């Protein structure tokens, strides 16, 4: 029980460029997982964070895949899941959020709540994931703290509890005041970074004192129950780049964030106190180590004490597999996990055995729910530049469909495979990885379809009649499920009205 309560599994969510990857790196430094944070300030090939390992991430300076990093501090094990901020990777982010117990929402002090932040917040709300807010970049010119707090409260319909306060902003920035402990973190040196200088009972400018008193009176006091229920967010101001607020954020996660929670499952929710080992695969990633062509399934452990070598049965095919080399991730380093506890994320090396959405358990009597596939918003055909690479292309597309990077559809008529993605940037990642990891040069061409829907019916005869009449627009996904390919979104509604006995689903649970 102590091991369970000492776990904090959380994600960092934000709009692109809010400073999420920088904050991730500084959390790893503070937790001792890495010893140098120079990558974010370095030049050339080193200008990237430790969590961004793909070639396209290094070229563009963005995160395009979720990363898992574990670190320990003061007896607490933190499992940090860094997610892509870009909306084109919302599927990966959504599935990652199913594996966490809390989240840190990063907001740019100059820009406030942005579109992707709001979308990700709504996903957290659907799953009642409690959120700590970190207002970043207060060392630069930004909006007034009251304006930012009011926007969080109004746009996200949340109570806000300011836990710290910026003393000035931009050119007048003089540190961050800790409201609960009456102390201030002060900038030092020509770079104006935080180097550990804490001033107790600080002498603050009168304007800052007035703002803090007004904030105390005008906003809700922190209530742990309301936070864990998702009704209130504690708000910390800081600068990840200059190290302000990072230590306070870790302390808040340790003190307030929930440990492992019950997970939705059939036939009943799974409690972390359960003795049977259970978990679910929320991500599969190939070629994290290109030299070894590895393939890792990321499993969130939900109950029981996992030990290396034990046999678990995946829902996919029902045959027990022995997990001999489970991995824990420490920044870019890996360690074999001799044991793991609820809340931990372990990597299971496999070769196509495990897929996203698979449940693993000792008795195969449970299935976790809530990991969806989303209908693609962009459909393309892949064109090989070298026709002799067909086999490699098939392998690459299968791999990436298994990971959730893309979806692959096999039309009932014709031999051209159709690739489906949620956002344009996913197509760039697809082509980049085909060339870098599979040595396959390929291009994309327009497909005669715009979107797709999974189709089903209560009576198989109704589904068969529909499929026979619309065979030119029918395809199968890689699991063999029937899919209707539509030329326009309007056509989906039109066809659905014509066939009321057939269901057209924009999501399909794995």
Q: What helical percentage do the residues reach?
A: 25-40%
Task: Name the CATH architecture of the largest domain.
Answer: 3-Layer(aba) Sandwich
Name of the CATH superfamily of the largest domain = P-loop containing nucleotide triphosphate hydrolases
For the biggest β-sheet, the strand order reads 28-25-27-26-30-31-29-32
Could you tell me the strand content as a percent range? 25-35%
User: Class of the largest domain, according to the CATH hierarchy?
Assistant: Alpha Beta
Tell how many strands the DSSP assignment holds: 33
User: What's the overall geometry?
Assistant: globular
What distance separates the N and C termini?
31 Å
Structural class: alpha+beta
Q: Which residues sit in consecutive blocks of at least 5 with pLDDT less than 50?
A: 37-66
Sheet with most strands: 8 strands, antiparallel
Number of helices: 13
Give the structure's gist in a few sentences.
This is Peptide chain release factor 3. By secondary structure, this protein is α+β, with helices and mostly antiparallel strands. It is globular, with a radius of gyration of 24 Å.
Question: What would you note in describing this structure?
Answer:
Keywords: Cytoplasm, GTP-binding, Nucleotide-binding, Protein biosynthesis. GTP binds at residues 14-21, 82-86, 136-139. Belongs to the TRAFAC class translation factor GTPase superfamily. Classic translation factor GTPase family. PrfC subfamily. Residues 5-261 form the Tr-type G domain. The protein is α+β, with helices and mostly antiparallel strands. It folds into three domains: 2-64 and 84-256, Rossmann fold (3-Layer(aba) Sandwich); 265-368, P-loop containing nucleotide triphosphate hydrolases (Rossmann fold, 3-Layer(aba) Sandwich), CATH 3.40.50.300; 372-509, 2-Layer Sandwich (Alpha-Beta Plaits). Helix content is 26%, strand content 31%. It is built from 13 helices and 33 strands. An eight-stranded antiparallel sheet has the order 28-25-27-26-30-31-29-32. Strands 2-3-1-4-5-11-6 form a seven-stranded mixed sheet, with helices on both faces. Strands 17-16-22-13-14-21 form a six-stranded antiparallel sheet. Strand 26 and strand 27 form a beta hairpin. It starts with a helix and ends with a strand. Residues 37-66 have low confidence and may be disordered.
């Amino acid at each position: 029980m102590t091991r369970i309560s000492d776990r904090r599994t959380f994600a960092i969510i934000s709009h692109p460029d809010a400073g999420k990857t920088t904050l991730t790196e500084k959390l790893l430094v503070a937790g001792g997982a890495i010893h140098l944070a120079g990558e974010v300030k370095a030049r050339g090939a080193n200008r990237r964070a430790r969590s961004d390992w793909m070639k396209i991430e290094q070229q563009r300076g963005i995160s395009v895949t979720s990363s898992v990093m574990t670190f320990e501090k003061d007896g607490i094990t933190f499992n940090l899941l860094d997610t892509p901020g870009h909306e084109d990777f919302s599927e990966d982010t959504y599935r990652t959020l199913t594996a966490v117990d809390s989240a840190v929402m990063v907001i740019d002090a100059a820009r406030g709540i942005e579109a992707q932040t709001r979308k990700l917040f709504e996903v957290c709300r659907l799953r009642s994931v409690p959120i700590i807010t970190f207002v970043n970049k207060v060392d630069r010119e930004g909006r007034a703290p009251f304006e930012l707090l009011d926007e969080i409260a109004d746009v996200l319909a949340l109570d806000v509890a300011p836990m710290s306060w910026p003393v000035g902003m931009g050119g007048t920035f003089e540190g961050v005041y800790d409201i609960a402990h009456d102390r201030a973190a002060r900038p030092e040196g020509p770079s104006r970074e935080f180097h550990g200088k804490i001033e107790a009972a600080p002498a603050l400018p009168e304007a800052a004192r007035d703002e803090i008193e007004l904030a105390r009176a005008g906003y809700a006091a922190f209530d742990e129950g309301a936070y864990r229920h998702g009704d209130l967010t504690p708000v910390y101001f800081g600068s990840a780049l200059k190290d302000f607020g990072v230590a306070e954020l870790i302390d808040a996660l340790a003190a307030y964030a929930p440990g492992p929670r019950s997970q939705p499952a059939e036939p009943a929710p799974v409690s972390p106190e359960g003795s049977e080992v259970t978990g679910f695969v929320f991500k599969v990633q190939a070629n994290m180590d290109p030299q070894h062509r590895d393939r890792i399934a990321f499993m969130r452990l939900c109950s029981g004490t996992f030990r290396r070598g034990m046999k678990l049965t995946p829902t996919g095919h029902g045959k027990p597999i022995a997990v001999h080399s489970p991995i824990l991730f420490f920044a870019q380093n890996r360690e074999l996990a001799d044991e793991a506890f609820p809340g931990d994320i372990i990597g299971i090396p496999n070769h196509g055995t495990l897929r996203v959405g698979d449940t693993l358990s000792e008795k195969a009597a449970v299935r976790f729910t809530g990991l969806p596939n989303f209908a693609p918003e962009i459909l393309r055909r892949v064109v090989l530049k070298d026709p002799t690479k067909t086999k490699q292309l098939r392998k690459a597309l299968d791999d990436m469909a298994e990971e959730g990077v893309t979806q692959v559809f096999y039309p009932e008529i014709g031999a051209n495979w159709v690739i489906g993605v949620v956002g344009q940037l996913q197509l760039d990642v697809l082509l980049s990885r085909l060339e870098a990891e599979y040595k396959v040069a390929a291009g994309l061409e327009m497909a005669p379809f715009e979107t797709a829907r999974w189709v089903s019916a209560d009576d198989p005869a109704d589904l068969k009649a529909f499929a026979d009449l619309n065979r030119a627009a029918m395809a199968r996904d890689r699991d063999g499920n029937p899919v209707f390919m539509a030329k326009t979104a309007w056509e989906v509604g039109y066809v659905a009205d014509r066939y009321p006995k057939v269901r057209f689903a924009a999501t399909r649970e794995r």
